[in-house]
Design brief:
mainly alpha
């Protein structure tokens, strides 16, 4: 799959896909449509800037879009944190329900903490880290990831549960630790 084949055909569908994913990821954060579209526009610039990549299959495309959204969110969080130079905020839990009403500052801290934890996980298990990136930053469902990777959904769900436990422990959000 190439973005270079016919950018006029791919770009609108890619933009729609990124917009859908960004809305899903940011919905729980109660971000405005303006903030979501700003993120999508930044992600599109990052994705389509320079030479458009070629994708072997849908799984590679999903992984790449999730990576672009992750990098965009991390860069945004770093930029906002640099402006505020805040600190001393408690660690943020990984569970979406626990942080649904958090402020943008806490969202930034969470994005940066999860990003750092994901980098540590990538050293141990790159495939699992990619799965987390696709779920957490890309907003893809286990079913979508399983279909793209051509594996059973149950396998992805099991790995996602394991990854969440690992992340909770790594982030210090595991009640057993």
């Amino acid at each position: 799959m190439s973005l270079a084949e016919d950018p006029m055909d791919v770009t609108p569908s890619l933009y729609d896909e990124l917009k859908k994913r960004a809305r899903g990821v940011l919905r729980k954060e109660r971000c405005t449509d303006h903030e979501t579209l700003s993120l999508v526009n930044e992600a599109c610039v990052n994705l389509l800037g320079g030479n458009p990549p070629e994708f072997e299959d849908r799984a590679a495309f999903l992984a790449y879009t999730a990576s672009v959204l992750r990098n965009t969110l991390v860069n945004l969080a770093k930029h906002r944190r640099a402006e505020k130079r805040g600190g001393g905020v408690a660690p943020v839990p990984i569970d979406d329900e626990k942080v649904a009403g958090d402020s943008k500052e806490r969202l930034d801290i969470r994005v940066l903490d999860v990003n750092a934890s994901l980098e540590r996980l990538a050293v141990l298990d790159p495939s699992l880290a990619e799965l987390v990136e696709m779920r957490y930053f890309g907003g893809y469902s286990c079913r979508e990831i399983a279909e793209a990777r051509r594996v059973e959904t149950q396998s992805i769900e099991d790995r996602w549960r394991f990854a969440k436990r690992w992340l909770r422990k790594d982030l210090g959000d595991d009640p057993k630790s």
